[in-house]
Design a protein that fits this description.
Layout: H1 2-23, H2 39-44, H3 50-69, H4 80-112, H5 120-131, H6 151-154, H7 157-160, H8 162-180, H9 184-205, E1 214-221, H10 234-248, E2 256-258, H11 272-285, E3 288-299, E4 302-315, E5 323-326, E6 365-368, E7 371-373, E8 376-377, H12 384-392, E9 398-402, H13 411-419, H14 422-427, E10 431-435, E11 440-443, E12 449-453, E13 459-466, H15 474-478, H16 481-497
Parallel strand pairs: 1-2, 2-3, 8-9, 9-10
Antiparallel strand pairs: 1-13, 3-4, 4-5, 6-7, 10-11, 11-12
Helix pairs in contact: 1-3, 3-4, 4-5, 5-8, 5-16, 8-9
Length: about 500
């Protein structure tokens, strides 16, 4: 009995780290806590064996992920069993990354001493890179997200994406640990680098690259219940968006109106009645319209089973036929069973998910005046490497069409709205985000929110923003090169640790 009690107590510092780190994320946004939240874990894991540290770290990850991802179990778009099972499975799997990080740290400490902590930012970022491998990627709880409210630090994403901000946050924890252990030279060196990054970010906010033309945008948030709109006449949803748009444009036109994901609940390319309504609305208002809708098409290999797409349709202001973008990054097990590229029979499995086909073209749409817009749908907007592909194709304004209404008034919509703001910093392009039930927003090129609509409300946003310029950022040009370099550094630190201990660095 005393032994079991001791084991439970020994988990406490790891659970505390998991809980404290979760508090730094949206919706609470207590960003300062993230600077020291991992110190209890780092301190207590030092003298543990690899597998003991693995188990203790898993408990920290379990609390962290359960607190932040509980909302997946609230998904009203599927049955209760599937929602709970998907949440539980995701939490259990993601906790393994915390476990592995903790175990690697215990190993590094035994080989390198306390100065082995200098490699921890690389180890953490390396695990974030691995976690976001293709087919099963879920880039949702990156440690850098905790700093979205501290814009000077968040600006580091221009260089290495959100995961470079993660390295900054982990370095803050390492700095505290080093100073606590009396390693002043190493601790103050890390502190200097942290301050340099923050000062550079503050300077950068006020010295952004040259902008492109200013555009006027209208964002429409219909707040249509997603659980009932597919069972009603499509006119009931479409009429809401047409009325809100007409009211917003009654006194003046805009460059673009953005509606959310599947705002028009029909196969828009094939149902001409609804397509003509939108073409007429765009022509009469002299304003381009971007909306989400579904699409299907047949090919020679599937004459009786059409390929279905989650798409965005762009209606030019002159009333001509719409252009289309098909969602590329589909939600694993939500919109498509993964690994079908290698095992096609997986497409026959039914977990209650929609079965969409992934698009393969980074479509951008022309607003005139050398301004083009992209249209990322739902959670694919948090993939920085995909966003940069749109910018390389010419996009200078980023649009996110989403429907987070399946998760009600939970933490999910707040986390999603915070994540997409990093795309502004990574690319130095503004963001127009239309979410069916919220949070809709307009963000400028530094990631600052210009205007927003609260969750579960109906209304429109009218805003002007500077479009992105023609000078690509380091991240746009080189993508994830910095996170990948950190991954390689983390792997090298572990490999070198198998060799002879460098005696001058062993300082337990």
């Amino acid at each position: 009995m005393p032994k079991k009690r001791g084991m439970k107590i020994s988990r406490f510092p790891f659970i505390v780290s998991g809980l404290l780190t979760a508090l730094a994320y949206p919706p609470l946004n207590l960003w300062l806590i993230a600077w020291f939240s991992l110190v209890p874990l780092l301190w207590k894991a030092r003298n543990l064996t690899f597998w003991m540290a693995f188990r203790r770290g898993w408990w920290g990850g379990l609390i962290f992920n359960a607190v932040l991802l509980y909302w997946i179990a609230l998904n009203s778009g599927t049955d209760h069993f599937t929602a709970i099972a998907s949440c539980l499975g995701l939490v259990l799997v993601l906790s393994l990354y915390w476990a592995l990080f903790t175990a690697v740290w215990s190993f590094l400490f035994r080989r390198w001493g306390i100065l082995g902590a200098l490699f921890l930012p690389a180890v953490w970022v390396g695990l974030e890179v691995v976690k976001n491998a293709p087919e099963i990627a879920f880039p949702w709880l990156e440690l850098g997200l905790t700093q979205i409210q501290l814009l000077p630090v968040a600006q580091l994403a221009e260089l290495g994406g959100i995961r470079f901000v993660s390295a900054w946050v982990l370095s803050a924890n390492v700095m505290i640990l080093l100073l606590w252990q009396g390693k002043r030279t190493a601790g103050f060196t890390v502190l200097t680098l942290l301050l340099f990054g923050g000062i550079w970010g503050w300077y950068r906010i006020y010295h952004l690259p040259p902008a492109g033309p200013r555009i006027t945008a209208v964002i429409v948030q219909g707040n249509v219940d997603p659980s009932v709109k597919w069972h009603e006449d499509p006119d009931s949803s479409l009429s809401v968006y047409i009325a809100l748009t007409s009211q917003a444009l009654q006194s003046d036109s805009a460059d673009i109106v953005v509606w959310p994901e599947t705002a028009v609940p029909v196969y828009l390319a094939h149902q001409m009645k609804y397509q003509m309504q939108l073409r007429k609305l765009a022509s009469n208002s002299h304003t381009a319209i971007l909306t989400g809708a579904l699409h299907y098409e047949f090919d020679s290999n599937a004459k009786h089973n059409p390929r279905r797409f989650n798409s965005a349709f762009f209606f030019p202001e002159n009333g001509s036929p719409p252009l289309r973008y098909d969602k590329i990054s589909l939600v694993p097990f939500g919109e498509r069973v993964p690994f079908q590229k290698w095992f096609p029979r997986l497409g026959e499995l039914n977990f209650g998910q929609a079965e969409f086909t992934a698009g393969n073209h980074y479509s951008v749409f022309d607003l005139g005046r050398n301004v083009k817009v992209s249209a990322q749908i739902c959670y694919e907007s948090v993939f920085g490497d995909q966003t940069r592909r749109f910018v390389l194709e010419g996009a200078r304004v980023l649009c996110n069409l989403t429907n987070d209404g399946w998760y009600g008034r939970s933490a999910g919509p707040y986390q999603h709205a915070a994540l997409v703001r990093f795309s502004c910093i990574e690319t130095r392009c503004p963001l127009l985000r239309a979410a069916n039930t919220g949070i809709s927003l307009v963000a400028d090129r530094s990631g600052r929110i210009v205007k927003s609509l609260p969750l579960l409300s109906r209304g429109t946003l009218w805003a002007q923003v500077e479009s992105g310029g023609n000078a690509p950022t380091f991240y746009v040009k080189h993508g994830e090169i910095i996170p990948i370099a950190l991954l390689l550094l983390g792997c090298a630190s572990v490999i070198l640790s198998f060799g002879r201990k460098p005696k001058e660095m062993i300082d337990r």
